[in-house]
């Protein structure tokens, strides 16, 4: 049959690879993977009589007409003694892992990832991945190599799983950019370690201790008023660390009682609205705007936000005797307090800016406790009547 757009559109993927060959150009065809991905290819015999296949390009990246034209040129080169598959293998064997990570950071992360994600990826690559694979050819890295690295990081399971995630993304980009063939991601089927989500939130007494420590260190000038405000805002709003740290005054609308962020952490579409309650408004109204600095949480450098809240946080939590509490746990604290006041999980999700029910589900056990309290109050009212 002659391959047409209609033919390609009509074919449905199965649990095995499907090959369709074009009658009008011998040796040109398309492979449909079980995932539904379609790739154009050529099949030919080299000068030694060996049957070879070479990928021409992925459908969607190339149109059918473009792929047929490219295939015709490649088959013409085969007739003159060339071996396209061997050339691809030689070219790919020259692509080193460390070079691929640089391209990954520059072409993928820099344009598609949030700054803090880029920093996390850079740290993972520099500390773990490049030391493990270095100048090794990308195409030579096997599943056993990946599993060995993962096992070597068993004592830090979350980092080990992050290593798998970053590696998988690197190999997927390599496939997307034609550096590797479809299915050449060795991270697949390397099983990550089970992770138990850490749920820590402050109870009333701990919140009071935290507040006293923040005030004490602020008055002693061990932390700046802006750092103190950052920690207070994190508890009062449930916002994410970087949403407060890099907050600009132009995004604060006290008259409307909201913070309006153009970029949402979990979505490239739409802004995020953070409602301001009386406490958060009081904190913001108490801050002095610095001329020439657009940020709410003013840093040491002119015109910049405060860079690292973690160092100051270690001092605060040590003074409050809350050594096991992370900055992110302030967000959990906000959610737990809202649930204690009877807020439903959908409302909690909206307040926290969650885009999926699963993200809010971690608070379900707290909601159950609230429901138990409610049913006990009902019991107290009706128990003597029935």
UniProtKB/TrEMBL annotation:
- Taxonomy, superkingdom: Bacteria
Which Pfam family, just one, is annotated for this protein? Phage_integrase
- Domain named Core-binding (CB): which ranges? 95-175
- List keywords of the entry alphabetically: DNA integration, DNA recombination, DNA-binding
Q: Which PROSITE patterns match?
A: CB (PS51900), TYR_RECOMBINASE (PS51898)
Q: Where is the Tyr recombinase domain?
A: 197-376
List this protein's GO terms for biological process: DNA integration; DNA recombination
Output this protein's name: Site-specific integrase
Gene Ontology MF term list: DNA binding
PANTHER family found in the cross-reference section? PROPHAGE INTEGRASE (PTHR30629), PROPHAGE INTEGRASE INTS-RELATED (PTHR30629:SF2)
The family note in this entry says: Belongs to the 'phage' integrase family.
């Amino acid at each position: 049959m002659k391959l047409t757009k209609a033919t390609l559109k009509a074919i449905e993927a199965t649990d095995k690879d499907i090959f369709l060959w074009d009658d009008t150009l011998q040796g040109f065809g398309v492979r449909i993977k079980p995932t539904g991905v379609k790739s154009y290819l050529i099949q030919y015999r080299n000068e030694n009589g060996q049957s070879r296949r070479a990928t021409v390009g992925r459908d969607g990246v190339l149109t059918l007409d473009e792929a047929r034209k490219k295939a015709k040129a490649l088959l013409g080169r085969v007739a003159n003694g060339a071996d396209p598959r061997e050339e691809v293998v030689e070219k790919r064997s020259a692509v080193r892992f460390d070079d691929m990570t640089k391209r990954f950071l520059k072409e993928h992360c820099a344009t598609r990832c949030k700054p803090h994600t880029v920093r996390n990826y850079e740290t993972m690559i520099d500390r773990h991945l490049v030391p493990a694979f270095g100048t090794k050819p990308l195409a030579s890295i096997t599943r056993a190599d990946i599993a060995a690295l993962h096992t070597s990081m068993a004592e830090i399971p979350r980092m080990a799983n992050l290593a798998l995630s970053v590696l998988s993304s690197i190999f997927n980009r390599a496939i997307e950019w034609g550096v590797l063939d479809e299915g050449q991601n060795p991270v697949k089927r390397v099983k990550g370690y089970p992770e138990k989500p850490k749920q820590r939130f402050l109870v009333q007494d701990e919140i009071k201790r935290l507040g006293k420590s923040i005030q004490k260190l602020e008055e002693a000038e061990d932390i700046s008023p802006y750092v103190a405000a950052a920690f207070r805002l994190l508890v009062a709003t449930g916002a994410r660390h970087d949403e407060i740290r890099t907050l600009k005054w132009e995004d604060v609308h006290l008259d409307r009682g909201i913070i309006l962020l153009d970029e949402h952490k979990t979505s490239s579409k739409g802004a995020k609205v953070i409602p301001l309650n009386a406490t958060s408004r009081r904190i913001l109204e108490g801050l002095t705007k610095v001329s020439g600095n657009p940020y709410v949480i003013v840093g040491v450098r002119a015109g910049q936000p405060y860079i690292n809240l973690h160092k100051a946080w270690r001092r605060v939590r040590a003074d409050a005797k809350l050594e096991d509490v992370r900055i992110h746990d302030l967000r959990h604290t906000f959610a737990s307090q809202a649930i204690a006041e009877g807020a439903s999980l959908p409302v909690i999700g909206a307040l926290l800016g969650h885009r999926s029910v699963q993200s809010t589900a971690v608070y379900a056990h707290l909601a159950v406790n609230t429901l138990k309290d409610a049913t006990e109050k009902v019991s107290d009212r009706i128990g003597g009547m029935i």
